[in-house]
From TrEMBL, chain A:
Biological source species: Parageobacillus thermantarcticus
Name of the protein in question: Cytochrome c biogenesis protein
GO cellular component: membrane
InterPro entries for the chain: Cyt_c_bgen_Ccs1/CcsB/ResB, ResB-like_domain
PANTHER family: CYTOCHROME C BIOGENESIS PROTEIN CCS1, CHLOROPLASTIC
Segments crossing the lipid bilayer: 57-84, 123-145, 215-233, 467-489
Automatic annotation (TrEMBL), chain B:
Broad class of the protein's primary localization: membrane
InterPro entries registered for this protein in UniProt: Cyt_c_assembly, Cyt_c_biogenesis_CcsA, Cyt_c_biogenesis_CcsA/CcmC
Pfam families: Cytochrom_C_asm
Transmembrane residue ranges: 6-24, 44-66, 78-97, 102-120, 140-162, 174-193, 259-277, 304-327, 339-356, 368-390
GO cellular component: plasma membrane
Protein name: Cytochrome c-type biogenesis protein CcsB
Molecular functions (GO terms): heme binding
Location of this chain's protein in the cell: Membrane
Keyword terms, alphabetized: Cytochrome c-type biogenesis, Membrane, Transmembrane, Transmembrane helix
UniProt key word Transferase: no
One GO-annotated biological process of the protein: cytochrome complex assembly
Length: 553, 396
């Protein structure tokens, strides 16, 4: 690699704009008066090499223009995704194609055609995010290394050309230079400047660490993105649903049979007038008492399986803990978390019927059917018996007009009973559903009279284990540290130099010039040094001149 | 306690209003006026603002005590809190830079925000289960603080634009600046129209059919220019205004109606203003800002973003994710409100990069500050009312 040797003796990498040590501009003949200090004139790969394909890709991704373009495209794409609800927010039992067309007409159809119904999971959205990630890595590497080098190598004594071309600059003549320097040094030290001296020249510097802020925050972002990607690695992430009825004990899905849960009770409460703090009355009145949810809660017992898994045998369980799962208060154990997310109230549980003589209304006993676990036959004694020939938990008539069931959930139970009695030993058949009875073989003497329904609540829980969370947390924390580091501190430098019997003062900050100027004003107060002139402002004024004046007329 | 709380908010509102006038006095440019006198006005202005802020803080604390939870749990409370944070951010920035003109632009925005907030149901509401979380309150307050600091950047950007945009001939810049003015005036229009119909106790009840083919009822508090899907005025409202058109079921006609009314109110106000002023609103404001230091204004606008961006990130993204993980089982769900927080964040990230690396200072930066604020307001207003997902504690 070529190197450029400055007249001060320092050897700079090829591509350096001004000497890392003394600041003498290496590429003269520039028109601009002020130096571009952004990366200390350091040699960045992206600016220096542009021959091979790798160079070109590197230059592409390290360009802030490209970075901003990627951010803006992602921003617009994200906004498009909020025009209509994403597929995950539409009702689960409809076809998305129909839903979008139905609800939003031609616009919805188009939205669906373009795949915007699943925008955030689409390959091109992922690609955008990935490009931002690549860009983050490359742009940071491109800058941070040369910048680090330049700041480390910087000398105290600077070339006059460097000083003159700083944004804040002044020259003064003072009687006693040594005394002035002493005063200024003291004040600078008070303001926590780190001071270096060389040949009677001063470099005062503070907040250099804030220059690393952007790179630290970019690293945080990259870690966050990596964490988000790890979600797709098997084993890192468990997301299961557990519907569990009151009284039931079920294996917790996603735990490979290690844990079991018993639902003791599901509780749903609403805000009711008279029971709450009086200040809520007006609000409760407006929407109606008993309509606003107050609490969703499942009282559970967590069990762990002990002993080996034996196929077909009941698992042996050891109680671990009791807990009340509420919204915002998940049950956490062994990296698993169980959340209250859904519920169904009053699911039919047990149904009772009386075997009854239709004319005399005399009852011969009651049959209680567990709707999840019906028995094939119920003996009522004295020669009375009921057989369950068929059971349809979620009954409907199918296309051929035959009774059938939609699911295994007893939403609408129907039964075919055979009633065996001493006087009808062959039995009578009766089809019983809610609110209807059919006697397929003519008029029966007996009937199954509805005698009550016991219901119970079902709780919908989400089972979650996420090993990526801590990575995301670390990424987020590093991002915040980096942003604060770069935003709430500035990197300020003040040079004081003796040039031809004059004192030259130049200063630079990466941001907040207002603060730097105030600080300099206080530091040089009473020393006889001239307040530096803001050459950028002067330039602007000269350029705009009468124009700005005209605008206010 | 709840009564006291409302009174304190009311007092704060009045004080901010008075403070605005004091700051107006501080920048009025009469010949021969002493600098000292100007400083007096500015001092009065900031004192009044601080007392107003303390009063609003009193509102916040008393309401917290009355409700038993931090009052940031419905649209009224959240928006009022946003207004309060805006004033707080202004006070802090004022003490750094000491420029009165910032008060003259920030306080009216805060006033508009608070007035807008009070158009929503103001009762103290009990919390639904998802909102019963300390993390939610931490998230909402920090996010509001971040947005408020970013809003100061908008105020400074607006000052910059009013000052530099050449009003001597119409251009794209004058047009868009007027659009900004018009939006602010429309907010005022919304407040005025809502208040008028509220005072008149206007009510019109419709039966209508929603998108799931369910019949239901809706009560309009403004004359219905657009009616709900297959809407019919019920008997006791038979004498009420008949809508010109009825909307399809997917459009929330009541909200659209409010938007139309606000627009009408805003337009009327704007046209009246133009007739009185005989020039663009921004042109009329220009003399107020002719003495501002442009570079300083630019610096303030940027400083506000530099301070606000990390606070916003913490509140609207990081704390939001923590809460979402606990309440909704996942830290991110692509809910519209979340997405718009992400969009806001991406936008300000782009802003910072353009400024730092592309040297977008001055006017360009000021326009970006205005756009950023527009995005924040879009999230606060439109996403709550129109797109409404999980976060829609807005109600109707
Ligand atoms: C969402 C993504 C990003 C965020 C949130 C972000 C955030 C930041 C922040 C907060 C700063 C400090 C700005 C300041 O101090 O004013 C910064 C600086 C910077 N960012 Fe990013 N950034 C992102 C993406 C990118 C990308 C894709 C690039 C690629 C080109 C990039 C390149 C830079 C550069 C070059 C700097 C300036 C460093 C300096 O001049 O010292 N950033 N970024």
């Amino acid at each position: 690699m070529e190197h450029v040797k400055c007249e001060c003796g320092h050897v700079n990498p090829h591509g350096t704009a001004f000497c890392e040590s003394c600041g003498k501009p290496l590429e003269e003949n520039t028109e601009k008066k002020l130096l571009d200090m952004r990366y200390e004139g350091s040699a960045r790969r992206s600016q220096t090499y542009n021959k091979t394909i790798v160079d070109k890709i590197w230059a592409f991704f390290s360009s802030v223009k490209v970075g901003v373009a990627l951010i803006v495209i992602t921003l617009i794409a994200s906004a498009i995704g909020t025009i209509f609800p994403q597929e995950m927010y539409i009702p689960p039992n409809v076809s998305p194609a129909e839903y979008y067309a139905d609800q939003y007409g031609w616009a919805g159809k188009l939205y669906y055609k373009l795949g915007f119904n699943n925008l955030y999971g689409s390959w091109w959205y992922m690609l955008l995010i990935a490009s931002i990630g690549v860009s983050l890595v490359i742009c940071s590497l491109d800058r941070v290394i040369p910048l680090y080098r330049a700041l480390k190598k910087q000398g105290v004594t600077r070339h006059p050309n460097f000083l003159r071309r700083q944004r804040l600059f002044s020259t003064s003549r003072v009687a006693d230079v040594d005394d002035v320097f002493k005063q200024v040094k003291e004040k600078l030290a008070q303001r926590r400047y780190h001071i270096r001296e060389e040949n009677g020249n001063i470099l005062a510097e503070k907040g250099r660490f804030s220059r690393w802020g952007p790179y630290v925050n970019h690293i945080g972002l990259i870690i966050f993105l990596i964490g988000a990607m790890l979600r797709f690695v098997p084993g890192m992430y468990v997301d299961e649903v557990l519907w569990i009825r009151e009284g039931e004990t079920k294996e917790i899905p996603g735990t490979h049979g290690k844990y079991f849960l018993k639902n003791e009770k599901f509780i749903f409460e609403t805000y009711e007038k008279g029971k709450e703090n009086e200040v809520f009355n007006a609000a409760i009145d407006r929407v109606g008492s008993g309509t606003v949810a107050k609490n969703y809660q499942t009282n559970v017992v967590l069990y762990k399986r002990v002993g080996p898994v034996v196929a077909g045998a009941e698992p042996k369980l050891k109680k671990i803990k009791e807990y009340k799962i509420r919204v915002n208060e998940p049950l956490k154990y062994d990296h698993y978390a169980l959340y209250q997310v859904d519920f169904k109230q009053n699911e039919p549980y047990k149904m009772a019927f009386q075997l009854m003589d239709k004319t005399s209304k005399k009852s011969f006993g009651t049959v209680v059917i567990d709707l999840h676990n019906p028995k094939p036959s119920y003996n009522l004694g004295n020669g009375y018996r009921v057989e369950l020939l068929s059971y349809f938990p979620d009954f409907y008539f199918d296309e051929d007009g035959n009774p059938s069931t939609k699911s295994k959930v007893p939403n609408n139970p129907a039964f075919v009973f055979k009633m065996l009695t001493p006087d009808k030993p062959k039995g009578e058949v009766s089809f019983v559903a809610i609110q209807q009875t059919i006697e397929p073989f003519g008029n029966n003497k007996y009937k199954m009279a509805f005698a009550g329904l016991e219901t119970r609540n079902v709780s919908g829980l989400t089972v979650r284990r996420d090993f990526t969370l801590w990575i995301l947390g670390v990424g987020g924390a590093i991002f915040m540290i980096g942003v604060v580091q770069g935003m709430y501190w500035n990197h300020r430098r003040i040079w004081l130099q003796r040039v031809n019997g004059e004192v030259w003062l130049a200063a630079h900050t990466n941001k907040n010039w207002f603060g730097l100027k105030n600080e300099i004003r206080r530091v040089i107060e009473g020393t006889g040094l001239a307040m530096p002139i803001d050459q950028a402002e002067e330039e602007k004024k000269a350029a705009q001149g009468g124009q700005a004046h005209g605008a206010t007329k | 306690m709840a009564q006291l709380s409302s009174t304190l908010l009311y007092i704060a509102f009045i004080l901010y209003l008075i403070g605005t006038f004091f700051f107006g006095g501080a920048i009025r440019d009469k010949k021969g006026k002493e600098k000292k006198e100007k400083d007096r006005w500015a001092q009065l202005g900031i004192m009044t603002t601080i007392i107003g802020f303390v009063s609003q803080l009193g509102y916040f604390i008393t309401r917290w005590i009355a409700a038993g939870h931090a009052p940031v749990s419905n649209l009224f409370e959240f928006t009022t809190f946003f207004g309060m944070m805006l004033v707080a951010a202004f006070i802090v920035i004022y003490f750094i830079y000491k420029i009165s003109i910032l008060g003259l632009f920030t306080l009216p925005v805060a006033l508009l925000v608070i007035a807008y907030a009070s158009m929503f149901p103001r009762e103290i509401t009990p919390l639904i289960p998802a909102l019963q979380s300390d993390w939610l309150h931490i998230h909402v307050t920090t996010a509001a603080a971040g947005e408020a600091i970013l809003a100061v950047s908008f105020a400074a950007g607006l000052i910059y634009l009013v000052r530099v945009v050449d009003q001597s001939k119409p251009s794209k810049r004058t047009f868009w600046l007027e659009v900004v003015m018009f939006c602010l005036i429309t907010t005022l229009g919304f407040v005025l129209v809502s208040t008028s119909f509220n005072l008149a106790d206007y009510e019109a009840k419709f039966t209508w059919v929603d998108k799931n083919e369910q019949k239901s009822e809706v009560v309009y508090n403004m004359p219905a220019l657009v009616g709900p899907h297959e809407g019919k005025l019920v008997k006791e409202s038979a004498d009420r205004f008949e809508p010109f058109v009825y909307m399809p079921a997917i459009i929330n006609a009541k909200k659209l109606n409010t938007v139309i009314w606000s627009f009408i109110g805003g337009t009327v106000l704007y046209v009246l203003l133009r007739l009185v002023l005989r020039k663009r609103v921004a042109a009329a404001l220009q003399p107020l800002v002719k003495n501002v230091n442009l570079d300083l204004t630019d610096e303030i606008s940027y400083r506000a973003v530099a301070i606000g961006f990390p606070v916003f990130t913490l509140g609207a993204l990081i704390f939001a994710m923590i809460w979402a993980q606990i309440a909704w089982t996942r830290f991110w769900g692509w809910d519209p409100k979340e997405v718009w927080a992400l969009i806001t964040w991406l936008f300000y990230a782009a802003f910072l990069h353009l400024r730092l690396s592309k040297g977008w200072h001055g006017e360009k930066s000021a326009w970006l500050a205005v756009i950023g604020f527009a995005i924040i307001m879009f999230n606060l207003v439109a996403v709550n009312l129109v797109i409404a997902g999980l976060h829609s504690y807005a109600g109707t």
